[in-house]
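Quick one: structure for this chain?
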Amino acid sequence: MLVTLKEIMDLAEEKNIAIGSFNASGLEAIEAEITAAEELDLPVIIQFAQCHESWEPLKTIGPIMISMAKEARVPVCVHLDHGETLEYLEDALKIGFTGIMYDGSTLPYNENLENTKKAVAMARKYGASVEAELGSMGRRESGTGNEKSGNEDDTKIYTDPVLAKEFVDATGIDALACSFGTTHGIYLEEPKLDFSVVTEVRNNCNSIPVVMHGGSGVSKDDYKKAIKSGVRKINYFTYMDKAGGTAVADYIKQIGREPVYFSSIYMAARKAMKENVKEAMEVFALLK
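Got it. Here's what it folds into:
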């Protein structure tokens, strides 16, 4: 069942949980994510980031995401993650995406504000919802090469709760990605998270759903604290992706012979990613 980002955030708010948002790096990832959600009977967000265009073009994978979401037995939002240009956002909306994220976090505040207003106006024409980002988590979204400490990045800019109110009121966004200590990629040490940022943003911004980026690798206790503080969407990809890669490596090592068939490694990766996604979703829904 295809739903909007706002609709799925309303479900999260009603139950005081977070919804997992998982990147669609290919067909096997989409299958893993939707199957995991159906097995747990939980809503899910499947998303595609603009920086992953070289992996699989939006024009190719986008319609597949929409089709599979419509056929799913659970609510599914198809979301654009880290959209960097208004033109790319509109490409996603034309395909049928029900949520878009405009990421102007590296721009000067006023430019981010004005572009986000334009993104909201555009999305409303298509009946879609909008996530935006205020603050900066430092390292940008990517699939590899992010194996660094999450605590030593001096380019991070934590979200200012006072500025967040001005931003949310002026733009009319449906969800706000906040910087409170997470970082994209794999953590080599436990991240130091400032949950008061989330709490104060919620208090200042009429309980707007807060989005956690860089969600892979956070401890269960910190997930629970984040959700209690008001996080309603958790972006999770790196550890799911790693689970698929490890499964493939283990499979090849196990058979120890040629030939190796792609169909076999495809299924090994899909199974491992599904189990990893299920584990994450159970934590986000406070089931374990």
